[in-house]
Design brief:
CATH architecture of the largest domain: Orthogonal Bundle
Structural class: mainly alpha
Largest sheet: none
Radius of gyration: 22 Å
Oligomer: single chain
Number of domains: 2
Strand content: under 5%
Number of strands: 0
CATH superfamily of the largest domain: Tetracycline Repressor, domain 2
Length: 409
């Protein structure tokens, strides 16, 4: 029930109906919905760590690059075989309000010590504190694409299909977009960043949409209400309906406007150079600068990051719209990126992809989504996003272009 309705506000009544029991009978096991969700969280970690523990021990013995690949393969297989657990992890574990430290503590209490694993990884890498976060974010993104494209709810993937997708994800993590490391090393990042100095400050915000963004950042798109926006904007609720037909229309306007502003700002940055690897960095840096300067928009986008994968195509609900990747230009845009967004980096030549070296690898139309997903991931790590340094964005660019191979000692 949770997996099929993951973007709705679930209730104990729905669970009782699914189980064929009365709601009072369910209360004998769980005093409220939060108690049920807490139990589900514990069950997830028990099941996940039991599945990967043997591979985790192997990864510790292997260390470095070998250890990373062993652990990622194990996690990828778990998520590929357990679509409901994957969705639950997206909603309840990768929430922006759940710090990575608490996740690490849950794993450590069950015998999977990621701190110990990080120390082993350092043997083969110029270690960066965000590297494992980027690895697991990439795994999450492409596993969501896998389940969405394969319609895993009604068509469970075969062992052969799972193995092929895991190989693809591993290759992306190892090699990124396949750029030449010498070309990346020659980039003068500071000079490129200076070309964008002061540009974001010149952008003016729409006061009404700014109020919508603040409400969504506080409560999320499902719980943000027209009343909250009215209070923040200084309008009456009836006055707000003079601007938006409904809550759905309000959310649509917010996300469409912000995605288009991000696209325009990124293209402005990319236009500062004619060199392909510089264009890619300027695009990534521009998006990061834009979101870093607009905290409410960043948090609102993060809600989409962890809920945008509408893996099971459900009938749309007026109050709880589905999130859709919009891979097809003919598809109606909902609350995900508009059709223009996948084209953002489409004109940049990426030889690794064009030569077909990655079988079933990231299509060029998926690259922009993946990059945005990673940018939001790194900006939303615990702490103040405005304190994210330019060096962190350079790290992200190195990971995107070279994968973990860009950090080998």
């Amino acid at each position: 029930m949770w997996g099929r309705k993951f973007y709705l506000n679930s209730s104990l009544s729905q669970v009782a109906l699914e189980l064929g029991v009365s709601k009072p009978a369910l209360y004998r096991h769980f005093r409220n919905k939060q108690a049920l969700l807490d139990a589900m969280k514990g069950y997830f970690f028990d099941d996940f760590t039991a599945f990967i523990r043997a591979d985790y021990e192997r990864a510790l013995r292997g260390g470095g690059r070998e250890g990373v690949i062993i652990l990622i393969r194990a996690a990828a297989e778990y998520y590929a075989r357990n679509v409901y657990a994957f969705i639950f992890s997206l909603i309840r574990l990768y929430d922006h309000r759940t710090g990575s430290r608490s996740l690490g503590m849950e794993l450590e209490s069950r015998g999977v010590d990621m701190g110990k694993f990080h120390r082993q990884v350092e043997k083969d890498f110029v270690f960066h504190p965000n590297i494992m976060s980027m690895i697991f974010a990439t795994l999450t993104f492409y596993m969501a694409v896998f389940h969405k494209e394969g319609k895993s709810f009604t068509n469970p993937p075969s062992d052969e299909v799972i193995s092929g997708r895991i190989d693809t994800i591993i290759e992306i993590i190892e090699r990124g977009l396949g750029y030449n490391s010498k070309d990346i090393a020659m980039s003068d990042f500071e000079e490129l960043e200076n070309r964008m100095a002061g540009t974001v400050e010149s952008l003016e915000d729409d006061p009404l949409l700014k109020a919508v963004a603040a409400a969504v950042a506080e409560a999320g798109p499902w719980d943000a209400s027209m009343e909250q926006v009215a209070r923040r904007s200084g309008l009456s609720k009836s006055g707000l309906y003079g601007h938006f037909k409904s809550k759905r229309d309000m959310l649509r306007r917010l996300f469409l406007t912000e995605f288009m502003r991000i696209i325009d700002f990124a293209r402005q940055g990319m236009g500062q150079s004619a060199v392909q690897q510089e264009q890619l960095y300027l695009g990534i840096f521009s998006i990061a600068v834009y979101l870093r300067s607009k905290t409410d928009i960043l948090v609102a986008m993060d809600w989409i990051r962890t809920r945008k994968f509408d893996i099971d195509q459900e009938e749309d609900k007026e109050d709880f719209p589905a999130m859709d990747d919009c891979e097809s230009e003919s598809e109606e845009w909902k609350e995900g990126p508009p059709p223009e967004f996948p084209k953002l980096f489409e004109d940049i030549e990426i030889n690794h992809l064009q030569s077909g070296e990655i079988t079933g690898g990231p299509g060029k139309r998926q690259i922009s989504h993946w990059i945005l997903f990673l940018i939001i991931n790194i900006l939303m790590r615990p702490g103040d996003s405005k304190k994210i340094r330019n060096e962190d964005i350079r790290f992200l660019y190195r990971f995107i272009t070279l994968g973990i191979g860009g950090f080998s000692t």
